[in-house]
Amino acid sequence: MAGGGPVPGGSFLGSWHGIVRRRWRVGALVFVLVAGGAAALLLLSRPVYRAEARLRLGEPPPMGGVSPTGGLLSLMRLGGDPFANDLELLSSRTVTEAVVLDAALAVALDAPRGWHRDSLLAHLAATRATERGVYEAEWLADGRVRVRRTAPRDSAVGDVAAGDTLEFGGVRIAFLPWREGMPRRVRIRTLPFGEAVRRTRSRIVAERARREANVVDLSFQHTDPGLAQAVVAAVVNRFVELRAAVQRRESGETVDSLRRVAENTERELAAAESALEAMQRTARLVAPDAQGEAFIERYTEIAADLEVVRVERAAIHELLEKVETARDPMEAWSGLAAFPRFLENPTVGELLGRLAALQTQRADVAWRRAAESRALVVLDEQIASIDASLRSLATAYASALERQERELGARIAEMDAELAGMPRELIELARRQREIRILSEILVLTEQRLRQEELRQALTFSNVQVIDPPALRYRPVWPRKKVGLAVALLLGSTFSVLGMVVAERADRSLRSAAQVRQAVGVPVIAVAVAERDGLAFALEEARAVLAAANGNGAGGPRGARLTLAAVDEAGLAADAARALGAAFARQQAERRGAETDAPLVLAAPALDRFSGAAAAAAEAAPVLLVLRHGRTTRDAAMRAAALLRETGGELAGAVLVCARAKDTREVWS
């Protein structure tokens, strides 16, 4: 296979051995570049320090009462997870902006390795008005510090004494006096405040330690250890302040809103109570249930009395009618005693008794005396008097019954009208009572929640416990020299192998007899070695060429002719022809008297042009392609063989010219 692929019939390890033998220089170069670059990056990079802190976030004060998140609705977590809310506060822009201002992260100091802010500056602060710029600070010999702006345009800022504050570009800075070993110049870079906030927000890492614990780990990395620790401390302080302010503001707003709701509810309740009182006065409904029962009882009694009066009135009228038609008064008035009113009246009983006695006495007298008897007349007058008394009494009672019936009927009518309007009034009363009950419950709940919120407001505090205060790790997190060097070696080795494979794949030159046969379709007949005085063929190589010429040449076994055609170097064919002639001469000298004559070796032009192929074919002799080991490409060899075949030439084999004797092993591998 061309390009350094496995040779057919060869082993995998042998193929890789050949690749390494041929491409070890490329692999070594890639290894040195990659491993050296990684090691240089590792050893020359500035150490990166990590500051860490651990916080425990306590639960906020409970929110009960009429809160949307209280009671049964709290199970639905409408207010969100408190810990997740705290994490959002921790990563909020408000906290990041405060941290950028506290640690002056909009300002970067470029100083030699080992020199940081606290070793060069006495004070550094930045405002929100910072802009993008580059400044250069130089400690002068007289102790002053000169500051110049170098980008985006060059301008002088001013000179300041060490320890004094200088303001420029939204930065307030004070330099320390120069001391031995301290750099004379440092560069100060400023960023826009918004860009500094964006960069810092992505670099502050806040992670939950465990899912079951309300513990958060804070970390920040920077090449300045003091700055890294200051950033973490600022994050902790600003987060605690923001969390307490949010809780206080939330409690204060809730208290104010609840107080307004309580006042409005109290006014509505007072108005509803006044309306209920007026309605009860108008409808005279105080206790609807008791009043309804009493009303029904009175209505039943009056209706029963009315029926009794009607029955008695009918009976008294019937009695009066009987009295008008009866001939015997006692017989007519005997039914009067059946009325309860008369039965209870002793006067009526006495009159009926006297009437009965007079009737009996008149019967006795009438039997003994004549009708004109004075005794009968007296008795008749007495009977008539009692009859008149009873009649007037019955008539008066009938009139009283009629008057009582009218009165009871009027009362029943009034009660019917009142009963017809009672449901509407009861419904209105129930509605007003329900409204008062709802307003009362709302007022009670609001007052209860108001007291809870007032207590919560009084107890509101930042219940954040600092478990691990901000501190630096015991060593820089970068570079890790042992691990880094191991990774550099691994990367160098990997890329060196990859480089050798890529170089082998990219190499289209012919190096083995198998590659030559695959490219041009003929075997390699001989291999020549380039020496100082020219090419040299071994005797066995020359015999192989002679055998090819005798077996394929048109001139027969004696005096065969052979043409050598170089693929891409015209002089190479002539050199090979001279070397073969010399080899044949040595062979003739060793084999004197042999019947086989040395062939005539001709050199043709290079086959990179069609004329060269035509010239080689015109010799009417077998053609051997001359290729240079490791330099002639597959495409050139295939093109030369195709041109030769198109012109009618006979391709007998190929000759490989190696630059070194040890390359011959690769040809036959």
Strand content: 15-25%
Mean pLDDT: 79
The major sheet is characterized as: 6 strands, mixed
Number of helices, where a helix is a run of at least 4 consecutive DSSP H or I residues:
18
Low-pLDDT segments: 1-9, 64-77, 552-558
Strands, count = 18
Radius of gyration: 66 Å
- Approximate helicity band: 55-70%
Assembly context of the chains? single chain
Helix-strand category:
alpha+beta
What separation lies between the terminal Cα atoms?
12 Å
What secondary-structure arrangement, pairings included, does this model have?
Layout: H1 12-44, E1 49-57, H2 82-90, H3 93-103, E2 107-110, H4 117-120, E3 121-126, E4 133-139, E5 144-151, E6 155-161, E7 165-168, E8 171-175, E9 185-190, H5 193-203, E10 205-208, E11 215-222, H6 225-283, H7 288-325, H8 329-333, H9 340-343, H10 346-368, H11 374-459, E12 464-472, H12 481-506, H13 513-520, E13 524-531, E14 534-536, H14 539-552, E15 561-566, H15 570-590, E16 600-604, H16 610-618, E17 623-628, H17 634-646, E18 651-658, H18 663-667
Parallel strand pairs: 13-18, 15-16, 15-17, 17-18
Antiparallel strand pairs: 1-11, 1-12, 2-9, 3-8, 4-5, 4-9, 5-6, 7-8, 10-11, 13-14
Helix pairs in contact: 1-12, 3-5, 3-6, 6-11, 7-11, 10-11, 13-17, 14-15, 16-17
Question: Can you describe what's shown?
Answer:
Helix 3 packs across helix 5 and helix 14 packs across helix 15. The chain has a 6-stranded mixed beta sheet, sandwiched between helices. It has a 5-stranded antiparallel beta sheet with strand order 2-9-4-5-6, with no helix packed on it. The protein is elongated and about 220 Å long. A hairpin with a 6-residue loop joins strand 10 and strand 11. With 669 residues, it is α+β, with helices and mostly antiparallel strands. The protein is built from 18 helices and 18 strands. The longest helix has 86 residues. The chain starts with 11 loop residues before the first helix and ends with a helix.
